[in-house]
Amino acid sequence: MSDPTNPGRDQAERMLRVMQSQQRMTQSRLVRSYVVLLAVWAAAWAIGFGVLYLSATPDPLVPAAAAWPVFAASIVVAIVWSIATGVRSASSGIRGASRVQGMLYGWSWTVAMVGASILLAGAQRVGLPPDTAAVLYPGVFALVVGILYLGGGALWRSLPQYALGVVFIAVAGIATFLGTPVHYLVYAVVGPIAMLVVAVLLGRGVLPLEPRRDTA
Fold this sequence. Notes:
single chain, 216 residues, mainly alpha, 6 helices, elongated
């Protein structure tokens, strides 16, 4: 209710309501973007690792020569989507140091994935056995994804991201111990399920996604 004797207070209250409304809208956009991003990565893992599993069974349903390009394409699409999501989020109401953090974190996915690819290619070049490579490649990538989620969760104090990081690191270890071709099936099922569960909980508001705001 407006106070005619104190117009300055009325103006301050209106500005506060506008700021709170903008914050809620920005938060809603961030949640929607993150939910979609999780769904994209879930599809990429299900398709990519699912195809690898079908190509590695005793009676392959997919040729190995076709499975790896499908896997690579799925991961590349998810990475590109991640970068695009990071760029959009950085320009949707986040300013200052938080914006820089978001952009750097988004690009860190590309840097980490490229670095892991070069490392594994180098290991294969110096004599990494094919059977070992088949187990090590997905394990390293799952480990990198887990570490990136841990970093994102710590950076923005986001419990969903941090929990996903723990899940992916655990999956990488368990799947590697199980060996080929079962490890592909573990990645194709457990990873997507974990991402979709978090996406649903975020979309329904059960889990909060509250990026850290700079107060300085």
